[in-house]
Amino acid sequence: MYQAAGLTCLLPFVRAGAPALSWAPDGDALARRIVEGALALGVDALAVAQDEEPGWAALGLAVGEEAGRAGLAPGPGGALAVLAPQDRFARFAQGAGPVLTPTDCGLVSFAQLRHAASDREVWAVHPQMCAARRVRAAVTALAQALSEAPALRGTALMNAVRVRSGTLLTAEGAPLGDGWLISRLPWACRAGTPL
Description:
Blueprint: E1 10-11, E2 21-22, H1 30-40, E3 45-50, H2 54-69, E4 73-74, E5 79-83, H3 89-92, E6 99-102, H4 109-116, E7 122-127, H5 131-148, H6 154-164, E8 180-184
Parallel strand pairs: 1-2, 3-4, 3-5, 5-6, 6-7
Antiparallel strand pairs: 7-8
Helix pairs in contact: 1-2, 5-6
């Protein structure tokens, strides 16, 4: 639809293929990274506590499948993967042991997560570039492209945005070398201006 209308589709929060440009990390790799984190922590089991929303439920299934392939037993006694919005972390973080949870320091809810997790060993599974930085990268590149050539539209505008992006984007419109990091929650960045 965007392409047919000659519009450039900028997606700082979700992954999509060409002709859209996306600054979001690969969501398909998230489950694998969570399981790699559990293995690096030296546990032999991974419990999953997830929100009921469809995206979180799908991630929960993917984490369970990855954990099984990696030889981690399901259930308590090891690490816990909390798969829920940051502001709902406290509802799901039950039991002892280390916790792995997807985070984004660029969101206002990150402060709620930090508070709820203050007495736990929590590992933040986070994109290399937070939400606030992804939005700034997309909007800045678009503004630069249009300020230099206001009449640009369609593929020409998309290419101009790609060239001006502060993050190198592949031909498919995704960040090159993008991925997920795992950091102790207190060490995860604090965005200056969360979304």
